[in-house]
Every structure is written in C-alpha cells, then in structure tokens.
Amino acid sequence: MPIANYLYLAAILFTIGAVGVVVRRNAIVVFMCIELMLNAANLAFVTFARINGNLEGQIVAFFTMVVAACEVVVGLAIIVTIYRSRRSASVDDASLLKR
Amino acid sequence: MMLSAPSFSYALLSPMLIVLAAAVLGVLIEAFMGKTHRAAVQLTVSIGALLLALIQIWQIRDMSSTSAAVNSVTIDKAGIFLQFTIIVLALVAVLLIADQDNFVARASTIPGSVEEQITTQQQVKQTEIFPLFLFATAGMMLFTVSTDLITLFVALEVFSLPLYLLAGLSRRRRLLSQEAALKYFLLGAYSSAFFLFGAAFIYGYSGSVSLVDISASAGSANDIFLYIGIIFMSVGLLFKISAVPFHSWTPDVYQGAPTPITGFMAACTKVAAFGAILRLFYVGFAESQTLWQPVITVIAVITMVFGSVVAIAQRDVKRMLAYSSIAHAGFLLSGVVALSKEGLAASLFYLFAYGFTTIAAFGIISLVRDSTGEVSDLNRWVGLGKKSPLVASVFSLLLLSFAGIPLTSGFIGKFAIFSAAYQSGNTLLVVVGVLASAIAAFFYVRVIIMMFFNDPDNDSVSVVIPSIKSRISITIATLITFVLGIFPSIILNTANNFANLIK
After folding, report:
1. Structure ipTM over 0.85, yes or no
2. Do B189 and A97 touch (CB under 8 A)?
3. Contact call for residues B311 and B324 (beta carbons, < 8 A)
4. Contact: B208, A94; criterion CB under 8 Å
5. pLDDT tens digit string along A26-39?
6. Residues 57-96 of A with CB under 8 A from B
7. Are B238 and B177 in contact (CB under 8 A)?
8. Domain ranges in chain B?
9. Using one digit for the tens of pLDDT, what is the confidence trace for B191-206?
C-alpha cells in the first residue's frame, strides 16, 4: 500500500473533525471533533516521519498527546461549569454575548 | 548508538525558567498554605519572579545563541526585546489583577446559588489566578523565542490554556464570563488544531521541525505541502492576534472576561503572537515570501478596515476596544508584510507602546461602576468628565493614543510602521491604513465628546476610588503612553538596535 494513503486518511479525519466542530451543537461533541483533528495531525506527523526517514515527527506526536491531555482537563472543566449553571452543554444556548 | 546529553545554556533561559518556577511554587502555595495570607504571598511571589526575570533579561541583553536549548530556542536581540516587553507588561498587569474584587470568590459555585453568596460573604479569595497568570506569562515568553515546530506548539498551548480558564473567573455577570471562556476555549483549540496540522505539512515538506532548516529547504520539494503548511499555520496564528476573518471570538471574550484579564490578554497575547509570527515569517518562511506576502497583505487590509468600521456601531466600551484591537492587529500586520529591519523595529515599538495603552485603558474601565458592578455600556459613560475629570482625561489620552494623534505613543508607532510599509513598497497598505486610522479616530473622539460635552442623565454610575495597586498600574501605563509620545527615541532607538532575528 502506498504510504501516501496515510496522508489521505489524515486529511479525511481532519476534515471530519473540522466539519464536525462547525455543525455539531453539543460542546462535548465539538470538543471530541477537535481531538479528532489533533489526532489527524499526529497521523500526518508520523507518516511524514516515515517518508522523511527521521524520528522528529514521532517525537512531535508524543508531545501532541500530552498537550491534548492537558487540553481535555481544561476543556472539560470549562464545559462542566457551564453545564452546572445552565443544565445544558449546547453551544447554541451559550449566546448571551451575542446581542 | 551513542546518546549525548543535551546542552542547555541556563543563563539565557533563566528569565523563562524563573517565571515557570514561580508558577510551580504558586501551585504549591495553593496546596500547602493557609487561606489568610495566601493572596499576599502569591502576589509577592508573582511580582518577585517577574522582577528577577527582568534583572536576568537585563543581564543577557547583549548575548545571543541559536542553541540555548539544543536547537529549540533561539535567544536573539528581537527575542530579548519581546521577552522584556512581556515581562514589563505582565508586571503592570499583575497589579490590576491583584484587585481581587474583580474575580469570583470560588469558581466552582453555581452562579446565583447559596454557596456563591456564602463564599462571597466570607471573602474567600480565588488565588489560583496568580499561578495561572505566571504560566501564561512564561508560555508567552517561550512563544517569542521558539525556533522549532514542537516548541512553538507547546508554548502556544502553555499560554493559551491558563487564559481560557482566567477568562471564566469574573465575579459579576458570571454566565457571560463562563460563556466567554467556553467560546475562547473551543475556538482556540480549533485554531491550535489547524496550527498543528499545518506544522505537520511543513515538516513533511522540509523533513525537519527547525525553522532554519525549513527556510533552507525552500524550493527543494513538493510545493503543495508548503502551501498547505503555511496556510494552516497562519490560520492558527492569525486567530491568536484576532485578524479578520478569524476574529469572531474577540469581542465576546473581551466583554465577558474579567476586565484586568482582558487587559493582560489583549496586551501580552498580541506581543507573544506577533513575536512568533515575525519569527516564523522572517526566519522560517522568508524564502517563500512570494507565497504568503500577497495573502497577508489582503488580510491586513481587511482587518484594518473591518475593525475600524465595526467599532463605530458598538455600544459597549469593552466591545469597542475589542474591535479597536482587531484594527491594531491589521496595522501590526503591515509591519510583518514589510519583511525588513525597519518593519521589525517598528513592530517591536508598536507592540511595546500599544501594550501599555491597552492595560491602562482596561484598568480605567474597571473603575467605572454602579451598584451591580462595572458599567461598560457607553451610553452610561455620558458626562463622566463632570463626575471625575481626572479619570475621564486619562481615558481620553489613552483613546487619543489608540487613534494615533500626535504627542501620544500611538502616533509614533503608527508612523514608524507605515513608513516601514511604505519603504518596502506597500503603498496600498499605507493608504488603507491611514484611511482606517481616520475612521477609527471618529469613534474614539466620539467617546471623548460624550464624556466631556454631554450632561450626565443618570446618577447611578460612579467612579470608584482605585486601590493603591490599581493606581500604580494605571499611572505607570499612562505615563509610558504619554512619555513615549513626547520622547519616543528612548524606546524607538532600543527597538532599532534590537531589531535583529538570527536566521
């Protein structure tokens, strides 16, 4: 199988994530779509590491995982506080600032 | 295979390390110290660390190295100036942040609940803001000097994540504040993902994560990877500086976040993000300038015009300043497009001057209140000049500086940046920039007229007497705005001397 296929897969995953962020309304699902985009970037990094024949891309993938984990902590904290005060995690309900 | 230990030059890294160490210490203080003195100790640690970092920056001002942390961090003249700017701005901002009555007593309580009232009555203080603030500051400092894609991404997240949380900690109108945090977080994470995906393709193009190698490999491989990489990475960075069309979060977050945090965020994030943009475009993508220069020029033009025009329609002073900051991002992008030493020097000066004006302006906004908290509705600012001539005059001076009227730092900054753009042959940018400034001057002056020449029609709005910390902070920031307008050469010469990015 040609290695470029992994790049196509990364691009498809990234697109699914990017479109998902725009069309989904639940903050948790939006957040999952963002995680999907980060993992698509990871796949692209690892594929390029293979193509370029060096390890730097794989190192980036590890850093990205750690950063994504931190993002989950912060993101869920924010989403949970919002949910507790409104009983809803829909991004459409959070519209007080749009007047 | 032999593994050799990486070498670090700790002296060059020390300003960042000091701030990071203080942030970690702050977390420990949160865990182990009693409630009574915590706020005072946290403030002392923050100010002490920033002062120490400032001394360290002063001592390394003439040094430079491309291998401060293996090849990930380049300490050079421009990097040192940007780090200096961030530290000084953070020092001024921390005094505003130290005014605890802007922050919620305990963020975990539900807005409007009994626990919230109890914690507020007990005067519980949310002192976590200090470590979060220090982490953000350290991340910003790292962002301006990182020269590989890994460090850039990590630094971007290190300074963004604390800011998402800080945006949600306002004491009053908490639903708005939490909503601002949610929007900032979701859109910020979205743009980081774009940044990372772009970085993957840049790595695929050049086979290296180091900016110097990326520059060296220009024209050697599949160009489509380079296009994708530059576009996606730019999306991530343009989001951080709130350039149009990636600006939609700015007004909401500026309005919802606690005002001192808005000031810190508006000033320091701009410095950090522009630092990284300048380094990326001047070092990493310098060889492929024909690809990005036209696009960034168009974005700069749209940003300047959009920010200035939409600001006219705003009825909320924080939203108005948000759109004004969008317009300023456009002006600053002209310095990036110039791609010359003059452009770099002008950008450095502009960031320094704009940062202080912004912090002072948000400091003033936090003083105008009624019984329910801050009043940011512009209609209620009518006649403020009669109630408090001093505050209204200072705010007018700051607005004039935003507008770029002579004898303020804003004028010198705009003049420097437009002349750099002109010298590099971007006449279009200069013409649009001057027109946008003229439009912007209209709404700044309108606010001044409202404050001084209209009679107040309600008595509920008043200017609170600022605490000594806020007073020091606003005074310093205003003085710098004023002095830089009259004697710009102090910082302008320094910016010129420090306008050097090692390639």
Report:
1. yes
2. no
3. yes
4. no
5. 999 999 999 999 99
6. 57, 59-60, 63-64, 67, 70-71, 74-75, 77-79, 81-82, 84-86, 91, 94-96
7. no
8. 10-108+119-497
9. 999 999 999 999 999 9
